[in-house]
Amino acid sequence: MTVITHNRRASRLAKMIDSAGGVSVGVALAQARENIARLRGKGLEEVTRHIDDLVALEAPADPEATIRSLQQIYRSANHIIDAAAPFDLEEIYAVAISLCDMVDRASAEDGAFDWRIMDVHIQSLRLLNTLPTAAAERAEVTAHLSRMVATKFG
What we know:
Elements: H1 12-18, H2 25-56, H3 63-84, H4 90-108, H5 116-130, H6 135-153
Helix pairs in contact: 2-3, 2-5, 3-4, 4-5, 5-6
């Protein structure tokens, strides 16, 4: 009978974790927060740019234009999600996720989708982006949007 043995090598990450020194978790988190704070302006510019792209879209006139519009809305909403998530823009993040859900619903419904719902989502994003510190108003916008979606889709 033959016995095969493997030499186990410790990974570099394991060696770094086991070694003395380095950065404590608290310091690492503080540094991460500082890094994110420095990127906030760029993230907000990205959010604004993609909201402007959504605002510029027109309602589609034919099935091919509908597909292109849905793809563009989905891409822009995903970019907004990516740009808003690290910067505590929960309302914008939530509306962008809801917009992606609306694109999924529109894709599932063959031409029977009410495009005004997309417009309401896009206008809500635009409004939320212009109300950076008005917490009560931001919450009210998202609450109304949630009620509208619940009323429309049950």
